[in-house]
Amino acid sequence: MTQANKGANILAPFILQKYIGRMHMSKTVFDYEIRKLNDSFFEKYNKKEYPEIEVKKGRPYNFILFEIRYNCFVAAPFRTNIKHENSFKFEGCKRNKFGTSGIDYSKILIIEDSNYIGEVSKIDYDENSILVKNIVTIATEINDYIDDYKNHISGIKKMGKNKFRNKYKFSTLKYFHKELGI
User: Fold this and answer.
1) Is residue 52 part of a domain?
2) For residue 118, is it within any domain?
3) Where are the alpha helices (DSSP H) in the chain?
4) Do 117 and 73 meet the contact criterion of CB atoms below 8 Å apart?
5) Structural domain contains residue 158
6) Number of folded domains in the chain?
7) Rounded CA separation 42/44 (Å)
8) What pLDDT was estimated at residue 29?
């Protein structure tokens, strides 16, 4: 990944270390980019077969991308009106007078083909400031969201039926078991 976000930290080691069982949060840095995805991704993962994947014609979503291993990315969408807890909310932003904007963990995508990654994008200045200040929290929460799902599905650490349903009922992770090694 290029250094699109100057001053940002480097994520690839974080998620990779977490997946192989070593986590050194105080020494970990994160690399991320804000991107759009190409139409070819949404053609492959169409609304009919993958109803939980957010897509609106003529309204591309911005995603925060973290590389979790060579040429494999976690993409979490920025949303303008998040009403659930499986997210990071940008508190105190100008845009929030119409809803709560943030990053939606329930709509995370796992992308193994970098050809699906589109142009570099931008978000509002105040949202970007909050993002930069909270990148470790966001990366940790994304990682935990994915790990909790993997552990439940794999039977490593089951959560209660209602808790799992409430947390993952509308999640897109169910479409990426192969990519997640489940």
Assistant:
1) yes
2) yes
3) 12-19, 39-44, 125-133, 135-154, 161-168, 177-180
4) yes
5) yes
6) 1
7) 5
8) 54
pLDDT of 30 reads: 63
CA 58 remoteness from chain centre: 22
8-state DSSP, 31: -
pLDDT at 165: 95
Q: Closest by alpha carbon to 126, among 93, 159, 149?
A: 93
Which CATH number does the domain housing residue 118 bear?
3.10.129
For residue range 42-70, list pLDDT tens digits in order.
999 988 999 999 886 666 789 999 887 76
| Percent of residues, the chain, with pLDDT higher than 90 | 53
Domain enclosing residue 68, as ranges: 12-180
Total number of residues shown for the chain: 182
CA distance 109 to 29: 22
Is residue 2 in a domain?
Answer: no
- Please write the tens of the pLDDT for every residue from 107-162: 999 999 989 999 999 998 999 999 999 998 999 899 999 999 999 999 999 999 99
Q: Kindly report each contact of residues 140-149 with a partner whose C-beta sits within 8 Å and lies 24 or more positions away, as own/partner.
A: 140/14, 140/25, 141/88, 141/105, 142/15, 142/66, 142/74, 142/76, 142/103, 142/105, 142/108, 143/14, 143/15, 143/18, 145/86, 145/105, 145/108, 146/74, 146/108, 146/173, 146/180, 147/18, 149/173, 149/180
Give the C-alpha separation, 172 to 162, whole Å.
18
3-state secondary structure of 109: strand
Could you give the C-alpha distances from 105 to 77, 78, 142, 144, in angstroms and in order? 8, 9, 6, 10
